[in-house]
Design goal:
Order of helices and strands: EEEHEEHHE
Oligomer: single chain
CATH topology of the largest domain: GMP Synthetase, Chain A, domain 3
Strand content: 25-35%
Shape: globular
Mean pLDDT: 96
Largest sheet: 3 strands, antiparallel
Helix content: 25-40%
Structural class: alpha+beta
Number of helices: 3
Length: 136
């Protein structure tokens, strides 16, 4: 079954539609690559997907542990390199709220390990450096 469609809208912009939900994401080429930078670039989405995946799998684990991760926030920095132009590194800093259960180091370690099992992390090319910081 098809997951999504991507329509080239012109002027280096695409419209991506998730078929199950109908939700859409617009991408735009970045300013440093002939675009307007008015939306996520495809490589921005790739880097952001890593953090989103990590938060999702941690959310599943936290639910099993009866820990509320609501308001947990990830900051993502994508580092591009040349020859060929590609993502060289993704930095993810995850900030956790001060909620019940987060003071326990055992719980923190379990969430750290869970984050590193996310499918996006393991799908990225091994040459992409992944730097992850957890702030509790």
């Amino acid at each position: 079954m098809t997951t999504s469609t991507v329509l080239y809208h012109g002027n280096l912009r695409t419209i991506c539609t998730h078929l199950d939900s109908g939700s859409q994401i617009i991408t735009d080429a970045p300013k440093d690559n002939q675009g307007n930078g008015e939306a996520f670039s495809p490589t921005d989405l790739m880097a952001t997907s890593l953090a989103s995946c990590m938060l999702t799998v941690m959310g599943i684990k936290a639910k099993e542990m009866n820990i509320d991760l609501k308001s947990t926030k990830a900051e993502v920095t994508k580092v591009m390199i040349a020859a060929p132009r590609r993502i060289g590194a993704i930095h993810v800093t995850i900030h956790f709220p001060q909620t019940e259960g987060m003071a326990d180091e055992k719980n923190r370690e379990l969430l750290r390990r869970t984050a590193m099992t996310c499918p996006v992390y393991h799908s990225l090319h091994p040459e992409i450096e992944k730097i992850v910081e957890f702030i509790f």
